[in-house]
């Protein structure tokens, strides 16, 4: 299951995308995220509970700001730390 966290507004699109089929819930992305955006939570998927990376609810509408530091460096530590490629980020500024 693919989950999209974030928003689109007049300034652009800001989304963190997590593929729960690829996510092992290891937490490497959580450790590497300097903005504290990510967490590992138990989510009910395909009739079972599975630990996966999620964007913390209070961060969903702030990704444009919280992820700005990493975006400006051209590196996204959460994406680079995921060995399975379960996390992608879309940050398109208008």
Which helices and strands appear, and what pairs or packs with what?
Layout: E1 2-9, E2 12-19, H1 28-32, E3 38-45, E4 48-55, H2 63-66, H3 68-73, H4 77-81, E5 87-93
Antiparallel strand pairs: 1-2, 2-5, 3-4
Distance between the termini: 28 Å
CATH architecture: 2-Layer Sandwich
What shape does the CA trace take? Answer: globular
Q: How many DSSP H or I helices?
A: 4
Main beta sheet: 3 strands, antiparallel
- Give the beta-strand count: 5
Strand order of the largest sheet: 1-2-5
Series of H and E elements: EEHEEHHHE
Describe the protein in words.
By secondary structure, the chain is of the alpha+beta class. It has one domain (about 1-94): Alpha-Beta Plaits. Helices cover about 20% and strands about 40% of the residues. It has helices at about 30, 65, 70-75, 75-80, and strands at about 1-10, 10-20, 40-45, 50-55, 85-94. The strands form two sheets. Strands 1-2-5 form a three-stranded antiparallel sheet, with no helix packed on it. A hairpin with a 2-residue loop joins strand 1 (about 1-10) and strand 2. The termini are far apart. The relative contact order is 0.30. The model has no long low-confidence stretch (mean pLDDT about 90).
From the structure above, extract its key features:
single chain, alpha+beta, 4 helices, three-stranded antiparallel beta sheet, 94 residues
Q: What is this entry, summarized?
A:
With 94 residues, the protein is α+β, with helices and mostly antiparallel strands. It has helices spanning 28-32, 63-66, 68-73, 77-81, and strands at 2-9, 12-19, 38-45, 48-55, 87-93. Strands 1-2-5 form a three-stranded antiparallel β-sheet, with no helix packed on it. The chain has a two-stranded antiparallel ribbon with strand order 3-4.
């Amino acid at each position: 299951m693919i989950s999209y966290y974030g928003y689109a507004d007049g300034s652009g699109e800001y989304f963190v995308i997590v593929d729960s089929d690829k996510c092992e819930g290891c937490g490497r992305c959580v450790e590497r995220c300097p903005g504290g955006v990510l967490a590992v939570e138990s989510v009910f998927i395909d009739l079972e509970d599975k630990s996966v990376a999620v964007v913390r609810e209070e961060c969903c509408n702030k990704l444009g700001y919280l992820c700005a530091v990493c975006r400006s460096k051209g590196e996204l530590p959460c994406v680079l730390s995921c060995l399975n490629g379960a996390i992608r980020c879309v940050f398109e500024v208008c």
